[in-house]
Prior knowledge:
There is one protein chain. The protein is about 15% helix and about 30% strand. The chain is an alpha+beta fold and about 80 residues long.
Amino acid sequence: MREKRRGPPSRDDRTVTADDTDYARLSQPAASAQRVQRVVESRDLFRGENEILISHDGAIYRMKITRQGKLILNK
């Protein structure tokens, strides 16, 4: 069992491996289970705004931060 940490995560704490999250475990094949996933801070993407546009594969997506602090992605 992991020990709970208090306080903000350090830069090293933001690096996760495929074993650390259910999403990563489900989305990665077993052979690449040790691959390190890149973590991007939402504040770096949004830069003080509540909405950004993301271009992906020729389509434009809109990502919003809700009043409750959740993220919504729409095509």
